[in-house]
Amino acid sequence: MQTDRPSVSLASGKFDTRGLAPTATGATVAASMDDSRGAARPARAGKVSLVGAGPGDAELLTVRAVRRIAQADAIVYDHLVGDGILELASPDALRIYAGKEAGMHALPQTEINRLLIELAQQGRKVVRLKGGDPFIFGRGGEEMQALIEAGIDCEVVPGVTAASGMAACTGIPLTHRDCAQTLVFTTGHLKDGTVNLDWTTLARPHQTVVIYMGLGALEIICSKLIAHGLPADTPAAVVHAASTPRQRMVSAPVGKLADAVRTAGLRTPSLIVIGKVVEIARILQPLLRGEWSLAT
Which residues contact 194 (CB under 8 A, 6 or more apart)? Predict the structure, then answer.
């Protein structure tokens, strides 16, 4: 995070737009937007680009993502945006931290939607910067719907989803002709906070299951899968901070995975990978980044 550039910290309640507007402390961005609603609107509204920031490594950004970030004069970004990515923005660009850490959201989603609309109505070129891909567990669909309903010009710039980045940096192929003809992405964190997944489908053989945002429920996930027929010795792994210098991986059979991860002390953000493809990582170790803990 760049402290010497225009920024907004929603978590601290400080609204700092150095070089763009006077500093207002003790107020949230949402309140600041409310105060400015009576101001004259520009003749032409701006545009919002929902941009996927990829799995964390700035070199995995798409060409279009780099271009949109450089062109933006307002960037609303999440916790999972990788180091160095914001440095691609103009020094004059307004930076707004929207949070989205596990259990800690700087703004509710409805307020983020409203913020994007307000910024665009001010005539700004807005980038909504999200880790991974905006349309894969990134709530991009909700934001896009809100923008379209408000009459805001918008677009989606896809990004490398976390699972793809993880695969490339661990040597775990997501599909393989010999053992994984089906690939399932699912989230371990539902809207109401429960873990109520289609366990029968997830426990099927000959597939790879990648679970986003499931680390906090790992023990429940593993026990439910085993109860629904998945063999306890099925290979599995948890990968933390894939594609970044902080990457760590713990692999173990599903029946022992929760204990192995607890011992290793892995934290979010982490992906859970379940399937025989995890075994192939041993063959493809030259692709591996970071630390690998192997439990048997």
Answer: none
